[in-house]
Amino acid sequence: xxxxxxxxIIKQQIGSSYIGDDCAYLKExxxxxxxxxxxxxxxxxxxxxxxxQLGYKSIAVNISDILASxxxxxxxxxxxxxxxxxxxxFVEEFYKGAKTALHGAEIIGGDITGSERIFISVTAxxxxxxxxxxSRSSAKPGYKIITRGKYxxxxxxxNELILGGENKDLIRAHLEPELDxxxxxDISKHITQNxxxxxxxxxxxxxxxxxxxxxxxxxxxxxxxGMFGAEDYxxxxxxxxxxxxGLDGVYTVGEVYEKRDFVLKINSRKYNRYDELNLYxxxxxxxxxx
Length: 290
Description:
With 290 residues, the protein is α+β, with helices and mostly antiparallel strands.
């Protein structure tokens, strides 16, 4: 089974209206909450990343979800499960890295316990005051698709690690992704209509398909280099045509249409099922699926 299959089972059992976006938006409390985990030999290999880099990325992947919601990062908790061969220096360096990825948030607690391999679970909370919060189900016909940044660098960095390459810039793009807080803030503080926004942690093609499917629309876009690669952690948004971000480097990659005979169309190829994209699947290979 795949990640989406498990999520659908959970949604059927729980029946919560909060499940569907990467963050749960608790409007009555003025916060969004996100949770992500990193598992050794599934998401990373210890030989490839320093403790500092593990700390950085563990926080970054969660803060990225907060930014994708349009909220302001505020609080983080960290749960660490560590094997008995991990020493205090590892923990010290891990938290040094974690602190550099907070984007103004504060680590307020967590948990630490033993395990057979490294398991990292982070919960992030964002504040919504003064922001318009996104939902992947809010893309409307006529909206344009905008993003910023170059795609494919993280995937190239992963290939460098697998093949023993030494391109430090590509490896850093994979292990220490830079988050675009400015893009998130600009949209959420200035837009006046509902909009959809996601990060591209599982790839740009992944995000576009999920936005189109959740919104009941079709999205057409041009293929760009690296759009099927994962873990770039850029942001992509479906916004009204008249919205002008005013930021340097923002570009349009596609447009939203009334539902047609496809969910996502990239150049001339039509996609109606998520598995047709052949994207990253956490459960496909199991051990060493990195």
